[in-house]
């Protein structure tokens, strides 16, 4: 039974955003709250549990859709940029080439674990995908087993069993940031000191992968002049229905039917991106993918459900038939996408699934160990038969030319007064490549701060004399903490100077065949003599003949001993470098950021307490 809106797949992708509301928005909010209360009251009157669940699912989805629409419509217009969601696809001549890179670039890392009874395995994918730029092709990856060093094969199980006495392979519960990680769990034997290293170790991971590649990707470039117009390329037609300040409504039709391989697969073939007048991509704040006709259909189904007294097989069959018949009539794909900023141009890209190529592969991946720090003298090879580019590198490297005024303008100040004994003022700025090369030899200098009262007009008045223990300044973290219990008067302003740190970075471009002493390329691995190129002061980026930056797979530091100095570092790349870019910190400056902060109001502690 599934009669709810398909919101989690193609129906709704949105961010619940906080922001000011206009009077009309406030009325809509009140109306929505009333509607929600009435709906919840009507649910209480339904006795049949299956019917109640069906009404709750469908009605809840419709209310969620309405709430999302309200949030998106009322969000203040603030410009925020993002990367090109299709940059990865644009590096490969065909969608199938991207699929092959995705599959052939996959490998598995053996990770250190803090427990003697666990070994963590991390599948490493060649691409990092995040919503809305998730992997756009239908795909599935299924792990089946792990082979141990004693030839024993341990089958995959979806969750760890407390009652299973043997070795287990299951999803990792310790690493929420890498949901694809797996854990090999060894049995705990009470009274025996059995270390992980004495257990048979995992040597290969088995599984299977399936990816469906579309026939092609085609992009339409649209502006306000295209509103109401239909643009066509072969079997694909795109209509720009509306183009608002920060949203676009687009409809897609494909003259050819879906390929049989994806006829039953939820698809999102339409990718809408926007640029502002600077030419940069705007980030998305959300999207609504339900047409008015679809919403009306589901509202009709909800009304039909609410008239029933009990859930029956006949009712379920009728709802399913109605839904299939309605969806068969929906030959067009609609989306309304909201952006964070004013739109100048649109790039509407279509994945054409009128034909498709299904790639299936059985995986038997060797498990590799690359500790971040190792005492091994031998450089392990890590050459993968794929080329992957790093589209974030050019953006990240803009921080190499960060100036003093840019740094000051990027500072944001936040306050916390929830705890009067530890009120805080925090100075922060977006982390950049410049921060990465600051090192650790900071000389923050003086960080003066004075607290002031306010006069009757709310202007800055007299300074408050305070004992030294009334406040603390942490210049390296950019935090001022103050204890209102020790203030004789209510502080209204804080005035002072907070140090910021700015590296001077020198950049050079080197031919891979003419590297200086201390730098050597061994295949796709760059070996760096850390005595000549200390890690705190140097960074390295690689390009191939295309002129694009190669993505770094991982890096390893080889030490003389567990306690000794680092000897050399190794950087592994997806592809063969032909040029290197070096970035060296040549100087470190302290920049004083002068501030006057009006303090958030808080209740002064009672002097008698």
UniProtKB/TrEMBL annotation:
Which superkingdom is the protein from?
Bacteria
| Native species | Pseudomonas nunensis
- Could you tell me what this protein is called? Lipoprotein
Alphabetic keyword roster: Coiled coil
Keyword Coiled coil belongs to the record: yes
Locate the coiled-coil region(s) and give their ranges: 288-332
């Amino acid at each position: 039974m599934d009669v709810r809106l398909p919101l989690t797949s193609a129906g709704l992708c949105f961010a619940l955003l906080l922001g000011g509301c206009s009077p009309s928005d406030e009325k809509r909010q009140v109306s929505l709250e009333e509607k929600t209360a009435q709906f919840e009251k009507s649910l209480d009157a339904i006795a049949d549990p299956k019917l109640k669940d069906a009404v709750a699912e469908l009605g809840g989805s419709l209310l969620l859709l309405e709430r999302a629409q309200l949030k998106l419509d009322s969000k203040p217009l603030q410009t925020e940029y993002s990367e090109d969601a299709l940059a990865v696809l644009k590096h490969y001549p065909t969608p199938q080439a991207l699929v092959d890179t995705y599959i052939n670039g996959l490998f598995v890392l053996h990770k250190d674990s803090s427990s003697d009874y666990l070994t963590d395995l991390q599948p490493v994918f060649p691409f990092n995908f995040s919503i809305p730029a998730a992997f756009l092709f239908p795909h599935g990856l299924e792990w089946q087993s792990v082979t141990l060093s004693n030839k024993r094969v341990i089958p995959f199980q979806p969750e760890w069993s407390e009652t299973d006495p043997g070795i287990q392979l299951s999803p990792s519960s310790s690493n929420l940031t890498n949901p694809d990680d797996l854990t090999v769990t060894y049995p705990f034997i009470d009274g025996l000191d059995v270390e992980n290293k004495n257990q048979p170790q995992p040597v290969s991971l088995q599984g299977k992968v399936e990816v469906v590649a579309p026939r092609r990707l085609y992009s339409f470039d649209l502006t306000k002049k295209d509103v109401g117009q239909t643009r066509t390329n072969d079997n694909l037609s795109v209509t720009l229905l509306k183009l608002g300040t920060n949203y676009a409504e687009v409809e897609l039709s494909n003259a050819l039917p879906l390929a049989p391989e994806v006829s039953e697969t939820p698809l999102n073939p339409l990718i809408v991106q926007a640029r502002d007048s600077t030419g940069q991509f705007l980030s998305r704040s959300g999207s609504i993918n339900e047409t008015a006709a679809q919403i009306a259909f589901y509202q009709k189904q909800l009304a039909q459900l609410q008239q029933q007294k009990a859930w029956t097989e006949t009712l379920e069959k009728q709802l399913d038939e109605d839904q299939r018949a309605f969806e068969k009539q929906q030959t067009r794909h609609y989306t309304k996408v909201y952006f964070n900023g004013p739109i100048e141009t649109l790039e509407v890209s279509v994945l054409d699934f009128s034909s498709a190529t299904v790639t299936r592969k059985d995986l038997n991946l060797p498990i590799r160990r690359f500790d971040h720090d190792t005492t091994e003298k031998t450089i392990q090879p890590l050459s993968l038969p794929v080329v992957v580019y790093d589209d974030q590198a050019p953006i990240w490297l803009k921080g190499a030319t960060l100036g003093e005024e840019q740094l000051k303008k990027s500072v944001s100040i936040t306050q916390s007064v929830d705890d009067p004994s530890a009120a805080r003022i925090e100075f922060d700025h977006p982390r950049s490549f410049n921060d990465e090369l600051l090192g650790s030899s900071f000389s923050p200098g003086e960080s003066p701060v004075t607290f002031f009262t306010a006069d009757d007009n709310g202007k800055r008045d007299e300074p408050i004399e305070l004992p030294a223990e009334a406040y603390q300044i942490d210049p390296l973290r950019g935090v001022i903490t103050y204890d209102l219990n020790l203030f004789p008067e209510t502080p209204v302003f804080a005035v002072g100077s907070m140090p910021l740190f700015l590296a001077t970075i020198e950049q050079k471009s080197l031919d891979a065949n003419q590297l200086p002493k201390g730098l050597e390329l061994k295949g796709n691995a760059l070996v760096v003599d850390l005595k000549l190129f200390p890690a705190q002061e140097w960074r390295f980026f690689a390009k191939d003949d295309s002129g694009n930056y190669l993505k770094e797979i991982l890096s390893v530091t080889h030490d003389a001993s567990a306690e000794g100095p680092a000897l050399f570092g190794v950087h592994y790349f997806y592809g063969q470098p032909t040029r290197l870019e070096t970035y060296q910190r040549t100087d470190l400056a302290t920049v004083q950021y002068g501030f006057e902060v009006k303090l958030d109001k808080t209740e002064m502690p009672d002097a008698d307490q």
